[in-house]
Amino acid sequence: MKTQKTAPKPFLPIALTLVALLVAAVVGAVWNLSADSSAHSSQARAATGGESAALQLQSLILRGGQLRDQGRYQESKPLLDEALTLAERAFGPDSFEVAAVLNQLGMLGKYDGHFDEAEAVYRRALQIMEKTASPMHPLTATLFHNLGGLEHARARFAEGEPYARRSVEIREHLFGPDHPDTAADVAALAALLDGQGKYDEAETLYRRALGIFERVYGPDHNEVAVNLNNLGALCHATGRAEEAEQLYLRALAIKEKLLGSKHVDVAMTLNNLAVFYKTQKRYSEAAGLYRRALEIFEAALDRAHPKLATCRENYEQLLREMTDRQGE
């Protein structure tokens, strides 16, 4: 009996970090906050030994963020939890510093598959920003960006679109249309539109973001790789096989160069290239890539993580189809 076939699933990562900007904000709350918030932060620093709390907070966020970005989620969590405790004690539970740490925890929750926890901390951070800062603040834009990315991870693309459009609106107001932070928001919006099948607008936005990233960062940057991966998935979905393969291969080469061969982001592109090769009936190549991706995911992610589950499902589906073909 033939196995019922369903389409294997590619991943569309969204660049969500903006870490350097946020760390700079934590050290002394340098962005333009309201007068009340700035005064509170100054009083808190004075009460906790000058700049010592801010410097300790910077160190915790930098190290926690580095571990998260390396895919070492279990090591990252205690450091970011410690950063939150420190920020609440030193600056107050409704301070800008707390909002910045909550954003970092939300990113970790999104990456390691704890989506409900991520949403809760993002929303708490957004409430703090609404009380203490301008509605056009960079961290507010980042929180909308990340809420959109969280909805993308949940495959709730239409729900994420308004968040992404709001982040683009704020960032264009602050920095203009050609800034790399604006481009990150544009790329995130493109991925949400892509997920809804709005391919024309999504492709226009992907190419806009890619052009900015290549001009600002050069051809071998992670933001470039993320958008090459996503554009490859779009070309695959719209029947442009040759272009899709070249985009995937270029994205994979950049990621392996920057991140090493065992990083979760590398595994995401390996999965996508495997999906592509399966549709081209290049089954052996697809199987090898799925095995590589699974090895990485299994080492880095919880057993119930959606990315691991999807990749395993894709691989098992491929094996069933290969078995069916041998029996024909």
Could you characterize the architecture of this molecule?
With 328 residues, the chain is mainly alpha-helical. Among the domains are: 13-134, Serine Threonine Protein Phosphatase 5, Tetratricopeptide repeat (Alpha Horseshoe), CATH 1.25.40; 274-328. It is 77% helix and 0% strand. The longest helix is centred in the C-terminal third of the chain and has 22 residues, at 306-327. It is globular. 49% of the residues are buried.
Question: What key attributes describe this structure?
Answer:
328 residues; Serine Threonine Protein Phosphatase 5, Tetratricopeptide repeat; mainly alpha; 77% helix; 0% strand; disordered N terminus; single chain
Please give a quick description of this structure.
This protein has helices spanning 19-26, 35-47, 52-69, 73-91, 96-111, 115-132, 138-153, 157-175, 180-195, 199-217, 222-237, 241-259, 264-279, 283-300, 306-327. The chain is 77% helix and 0% strand.
